[in-house]
Amino acid sequence: MSTPGKNLSSYDPSLIPPAGNLKIAIVVSEWNDQVTGQLARGAQETLIKHGVNPSNLLIMQVPGSFELPLAARMLIESNPLDAVILIGCVIRGETPHFDFISQAVAHGCMQLGLDTGIPVIFGVLTTNNLDQALDRAGGKHGNKGTEAAVTAIKMASFNRS
Ligand code: DLZ
After folding, report:
1. Which of 28, 101, 126, 129 is the best mutation target for the ligand 1 pocket, counting ligand atoms within 8 Å of the beta carbon and taking the most?
2. What is the pLDDT of residues 131-161, one digit of tens each?
3. Pick the catalytic residue: 50, 97, 107, 141?
4. 84 closest CA partner among 28, 141, 157, 152
5. Ligand 1 centroid distance, CA of 91 (Å)
6. Which atom of ligand 1 has the smallest separation from the CA of 95?
7. Whose CA is nearest to atom 21 of ligand 1?
8. Bridge-partner residues for 87, per DSSP?
9. Which helix (H) or strand (E) holds 65?
């Protein structure tokens, strides 16, 4: 459930730990790329704003949100990462695909974090229509990519401590 009035780009910068030495991957779904491009940009800008070195950022694309958890697992297994951010946008259509994809990626994201001990952050919008998605990809409700980046820094720092 979304929180009424909550802006996804709002956070208290004084609560963000130093991020200078973190290595973070962002995996971006190509489906609904006008939305996921904005989410990825929000995440990338926020990480760099808080000190993540651009050379320590790994940005990869996958065909759709369903592929995000497996791609993240491949990256974790082949790179020393502090966190992985999954970026996707699943929009409800006429068939039940929305429920299958949303549940699969949410479950895969959580399970991968539990299995590997590496924070895997759910930067996936699940909306009823494109307007709701755009509102949360740099529109009137902020940018979920920013929220995901802040969560990645906090969880990576938690893991290192
Ligand atoms: C097939 C599909 C559909 C119908 N809708 C979306 C969507 O709204 N968002 C998204 O990220 N991906 C969608 N996909 C693609 C699936 O995630 C996946 O890439 C394909 O089913 C192939 O496994």
Report:
1. 101
2. 999 999 999 999 999 999 999 999 999 998 8
3. 97
4. 152
5. 9
6. 4
7. 66
8. 28, 123
9. none
Condensed to tens digits (0 to 9), the pLDDT of residues 5-59 reads 789 999 999 999 999 999 999 999 999 999 999 999 999 999 999 999 999 999 9
Closest residue by Cα to residue 46 from 19, 7, 6: 19
Sorted by where each begins, the domain ranges of the chain are 43-51+58-160
The 10 Å Cβ neighbour count of residue 14 is 5
Burial class (CB in 10 A: 0-12, 13-18, 19+), 56: middle
Model confidence band, residue 88 (pLDDT cutoffs 50, 70, 90): very high
Look up tokens 């910068």; give the residue.
13
**Topology (CATH level 3) of domain 43-51+58-160:** Rossmann fold (3.40.50)
Q: For residue range 90-109, list pLDDT tens digits in order.
A: 999 889 999 999 999 999 99
Of the candidates 126, 149, 122, 151, the one whose C-alpha atom is nearest the C-alpha of residue 136 is: 126
